[in-house]
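Hi U.,

Before I forget, here's the chain from the pilot set. I'm dumping it here mostly so it's searchable later in email.
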Amino acid sequence: MTLTSLLAALGLIDIAALALMVILWIALGWIIEHPPAGRPSVTVLVAQRRRDWMKVFVTREPRIFDSQILASLRQGTSFFASTSLLAIGGVLALIGNTDPLRGVAAEVMLEETPTLIWQIKLGLVTLFLVTAFLKFVWSNRVFGYCSVLMGAVPQDADHPDAYPLAAQAGELNVRAAMNFNRGLRAMYFALAALAWLIGAWALIVATVLVAWTIWSREFASHPRRILMGKVV
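Structure:
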């Protein structure tokens, strides 16, 4: 099947739905990580608290509390990396055998869908899941770098290297969290991409709902109001 025939098989509405998903995915990631100065996202607000944490870390005795927090953060990245890897395996199994999808589709759709179209739709889901897996793995590793720098921070707060090393650890902590959040967004959009199996309009609706969910949690959620100090 040539590219022209493939585009014809997908249809304009499918291409438009796919373009909408890609645009919203990229745009949301940008605005969350680079929000307007007067309307910071939860990600940006928590990033500052991560830097504050590393400043407090310098004078905290003992430092077991900090190591426990970092260990729990790394466990979260490991869990989601494992989950996304399992999901990738399941989707790849469906790509290799689309007969179960054909049986379900025959009950809800009149037209016959070529196997390649099913594989393309599942490929989109796989792309998001692979992106999520890579982000989670990198996040886990950067949290590891952060733990090494935390271990290198001198016990003496008056040591000239204490606060500079703590600041470096804080920036690594922020980068690790940023990649973790990117992985979560990719998993959200992977769930939306599953709606494409039903049809282009279902993909559009799912994409808009997922985009709204992500946006509202970053810019209109109760945790954000707490972080902004607006909750009485």
